[in-house]
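Quick entry between incubations.
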Amino acid sequence: MTMTDAQVRAALQSLPIELPSWGFGNAGTRFGVFPETGAARDVFEKIEDAALVHRLTGACPTIALHIPWDLPPAGMDWAALAAFAQEQGIRLGAINPNLFQEREYMLGSVCHPDPAVRRKAAAHLVECAEIAGIVGSQQVVVWLADGTNYPGQDDIRARRGRLKETLAEGYAALTPGVEMLVEYKMFEPGFYTTDLPDWGTAYTICQHLGPQAKVLVDTGHHAQGTNIEFIVATLLDEKRLGGFHFNDRRYADDDLIVGSANPFQLFLIFHELINGNDGRSAAPVSYMLDQSHSIEPKVEAMVLSVLNVQTAYAKALLVDRAALAERQAAGDVLGAHTILRDAYETDVRPLLAASREELGRPADPLCVLRGDAAFQESRRTREATPARAGGGGLGS
Amino acid sequence: MTMTDAQVRAALQSLPIELPSWGFGNAGTRFGVFPETGAARDVFEKIEDAALVHRLTGACPTIALHIPWDLPPAGMDWAALAAFAQEQGIRLGAINPNLFQEREYMLGSVCHPDPAVRRKAAAHLVECAEIAGIVGSQQVVVWLADGTNYPGQDDIRARRGRLKETLAEGYAALTPGVEMLVEYKMFEPGFYTTDLPDWGTAYTICQHLGPQAKVLVDTGHHAQGTNIEFIVATLLDEKRLGGFHFNDRRYADDDLIVGSANPFQLFLIFHELINGNDGRSAAPVSYMLDQSHSIEPKVEAMVLSVLNVQTAYAKALLVDRAALAERQAAGDVLGAHTILRDAYETDVRPLLAASREELGRPADPLCVLRGDAAFQESRRTREATPARAGGGGLGS
Amino acid sequence: MTMTDAQVRAALQSLPIELPSWGFGNAGTRFGVFPETGAARDVFEKIEDAALVHRLTGACPTIALHIPWDLPPAGMDWAALAAFAQEQGIRLGAINPNLFQEREYMLGSVCHPDPAVRRKAAAHLVECAEIAGIVGSQQVVVWLADGTNYPGQDDIRARRGRLKETLAEGYAALTPGVEMLVEYKMFEPGFYTTDLPDWGTAYTICQHLGPQAKVLVDTGHHAQGTNIEFIVATLLDEKRLGGFHFNDRRYADDDLIVGSANPFQLFLIFHELINGNDGRSAAPVSYMLDQSHSIEPKVEAMVLSVLNVQTAYAKALLVDRAALAERQAAGDVLGAHTILRDAYETDVRPLLAASREELGRPADPLCVLRGDAAFQESRRTREATPARAGGGGLGS
Amino acid sequence: MTMTDAQVRAALQSLPIELPSWGFGNAGTRFGVFPETGAARDVFEKIEDAALVHRLTGACPTIALHIPWDLPPAGMDWAALAAFAQEQGIRLGAINPNLFQEREYMLGSVCHPDPAVRRKAAAHLVECAEIAGIVGSQQVVVWLADGTNYPGQDDIRARRGRLKETLAEGYAALTPGVEMLVEYKMFEPGFYTTDLPDWGTAYTICQHLGPQAKVLVDTGHHAQGTNIEFIVATLLDEKRLGGFHFNDRRYADDDLIVGSANPFQLFLIFHELINGNDGRSAAPVSYMLDQSHSIEPKVEAMVLSVLNVQTAYAKALLVDRAALAERQAAGDVLGAHTILRDAYETDVRPLLAASREELGRPADPLCVLRGDAAFQESRRTREATPARAGGGGLGS
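Done. Structure below.
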């Protein structure tokens, strides 16, 4: 009693995957940045590139923005930027405050020992909440670089108090219906403590903030060996799962293409997302890519990321859930396990191609992109002309 | 403005460290057990050995019991066992249910797919809650071996539902004033999932159970690189820290002597315990050793463990908290860090010796134990005589 | 220019996978053993079960033995045991000394501080070398439980000297053509040091021993995040790869079914085994399962393990190596990566079934096993009758 | 039979700790750089700052250089730069090639698939070998950023071939008596593979290169849970330990102050360095700091690092080695362990202060630095004036 191919295609077509503006610009490691010829240099080019990914995949109707990197240039308002996106075929998505790049934030932002710095951080959160209201975004995503490098550097408990207090100011400014997604990360850039190191901390902070606050799971932000799908199942059960920042990693947080290092894990995450929902589609939370590409061609990397997410989702949809439940109830360890594994071993590439063609998109978007002369030309044009407006940087 | 030596001694003398009955019996790894000549073979000998550690250190007034390993033998009631302990100079402490050794528990206990197994587990929890009431214990400590080894083996979310439901039955049987301490562990013996893998999960379960449920931190149960003192600070802030199972590890869960692998970490944990309390003593939670010794002489190992806990605590008491707070507020990264480090570098062995002598205990208890002819004789006597009653096993 | 299905089937049919005798007996964790009804109780039943796996898969012509667990019973010689195996349709394989279970080995075997214990260990190595000669085995596999739990417990450097010296005695007793495979393991049962913790240590020891010594890679014996396929490529380049102990793990060493936790990693290992050989078949080293099953039905677990190995191998054989090399030379990061990924996404279940049927084996061996009435009956018979001869235990 | 305080002081005074030029300039994480007021901006200011650390500690007679960051400015030769250093009271030390910052190196340097890039890398190695000869440096330290981010991106084995071949060109250019120190690192900036990921790989490369090649251990470059002191003991035994890059980390490679995250580990490393030498002083290898400071005042951080190294060394010198050896031979697990631990618990701050005063240096160099008006003034002067010559960047 598995889903039919048509049902799987319909489910796939209903899963929007949000693209991160910062994934289209040049990024690197702490050892340097290797710029890509023709990479997006401003918010307009990021929107253009995101729209291209949507045209190729049919799966990415929105683009997440990073503030202040993606502010409309002087003299332009948000409505005009939103209109620009709409012309390109996509919409503006989650608003991501930046609380780490300015010099005042060296020792933290919302947790900083100096109240003046916290005021500045709170004001930025409020500004982002307002932007979300203006552009019709459904989420403000809070990732913090706050933390410490040395035992004793600051008071762990006092920082927690500041965290609750300062985030609450941003929360209070949310338009009804907009969620604050609270992201956690085990380490980096703080190496002794991170003020939101794990899902449990983010969860308790959300409880303090209120019902519009939910936990955001970044798949690259856990300790080695952590069972991420277990966390997903738990947060769904507690009704506090806000969504995902997808990427992959073998070690550290490296923003690799989601599903490139451990595709089985991504499949298991989607298995829980379906299992914790209605058994026929993934839970209605936010699905966002969060990657920054240091050696990969950025548009290609985004297309491949979308394909990897869809591959994992399609396989998870194919699990024979009735048979699985029956084997689980019987305590049949390997009988149950092999049902899951059988779905994973299925080659879903034809199914994905058919789904895309049904939407009028290319069966093999990566191949089309690589052969697209207009795309290549656009890269050369960018190199030869000045950018329209600023904004660079790097995700978390 | 640090504490005086007299104040530190007084604080040390007020920190009771509970000993685990199972740490005195023979234990091993999955590759086998190397029995120690004269190791405790029954609950009486465990009590005798624990009492000896208390006589040597003055720090261990109670012994934790594992049920059914430490049930009084047929024909003896709990009052008689408690009286036996009292004669030896100690009291009965936390009650630890065993939900992993019987054959029915192969696929779990409180989370087992079969309701009959869950009924059995619930009944054992109720039994332990009742024992705690009878013997005047303040805690029932719940550590579960529940988990799965393979993706798909069981339904993660369904198991969580069973966990909440079954633990609630044990919780309902608690005598007022007795706490249920919910322990978490990242892995082992389940290797794909553990039903209580992290503090966040234990925390949400405690919220479901009620105010008498608190989280127990076992220092050996975290992913590599986890900042345990941060968790301690967070749980204190949320008023859900129930206490500790102390031990140490470099990799995996190995029940090594607490403070033997990373003494600095233990110091930092105590720093948070003081910081999250009144700045002059560690928070009033349960401090319990949880070790099982495969190659170490068991009584020696316990004495050394107590010394290591006291060493870390004494150093943390010596931190100049006023100066520290001042440096932290000033954003002086290394100034603050070195204040902590200075306390850590202090040699507190003379202070600990003085504290023990003040209590009429030996200055160097390990040396006394090693030279104690009566102790050596007691080992030989045990070898030569039959044990009084059963009970062996291994902690978590 | 990929291999044809017929070529892939031929390659699959040429990869022998050795079964471990200890994987058929009851095993467990340090928390206990849950015996399986009808699990093998002696060397004969282990051979019978291994032969059944070979009949079902056509891939497992040999069984590894653990000494002394698998010694022929009193009054029987090795020739008779070998003949018993041959009647069943398989041969005796690698000889695995046991240097950890006896009481003398509490502080080590070949590295023990006491020369008398080292003599005993050396004698056992010599005995195993002789057995290998007698039964025509090609390998003596040395895994050591040697290590320490506490800093200072023993002298790291002195232990290394003893290791070289004592292993050399066993090495000297090898029949020409027989290899000594030196296994490494990051931790457990030693938790401070392991005397052979990593491939580098094993490699230097092999250099000291001589050309018949090679490194054995156990896929479950590495630190989190280790790139095992890189080690495989390196050892192949240095001509010191002796073979594998296959299993899987998420955390710690848990002897899970190979390929069950991270099937992509197993594929990548086989990619290097082919790449470091002739590009059309895996390097001619020893492929051995090393698993012990605590909750899985043992014969099922072995069959599934064989299927997982073959799945990974078949997918790796399907990599378009010419196209891959071309993309790599061009510095095309994602073009090269997706070639590998395409092979991985292929559903090779039909190909594996066809390969088995070509050999006269069932297309779906797991299904056949589960429906096999004679198999079920044999389990019941074993329960009802006494075993023929001893031998239990647990792998590394 | 421990060393006397005078002997310990003499040993401390004989351990030179090299300072890294890059540790004095501004550095950061991939999220940005927070510049320090007055941080060194060119090679001259780095030399001035290193000389100040030497004046304060008496322990740092040399400064390591990074090429091309620390090239003498146009019109100045190496002799003049060396003379500048000498005026300041220190000498030029190890030469560190930079093979990661130029655009050609995006996919590697000595392992790059394009031979032209490898030629460039080889030429830089030769240049550095020549510089080492000119300035009288004893070491060329090779750390590579070479690696890949995706399975299949490049051929692991082919890269190894290129690694051996290209490094050999640099090796051939070494002046007699100069060592090539080959550094390894588990990950970063490559996240799928690192071409020199572990000591075993570095060791085999050194064997291929020749006797002047030795392994350099960076204390922050290992997998979680790795026993670094074991590696030190092994490399000493094989006569291939070249030296150290000291720093500390809790997670990832973060270049924290050595000994700040786990001081016990640093002590254990020094214990092996003494144990593998003559039992009375650390092995005569290179001791170099390799840190880059993102939030710490740089000169303070270096002084504190030197103190931490000396603290660990002094404690290790105080181990009662005769008693330890006796307890180890007796198999006395805890007796041996506590001997080590006793040395660690000793407060060596007075001994270090006395040692410094014996050399005419301040007893508390950190305190002196913080109160030094001339130092503060020099920071302000730097801010107000242009730098003399370029050079920025970040260590590995």
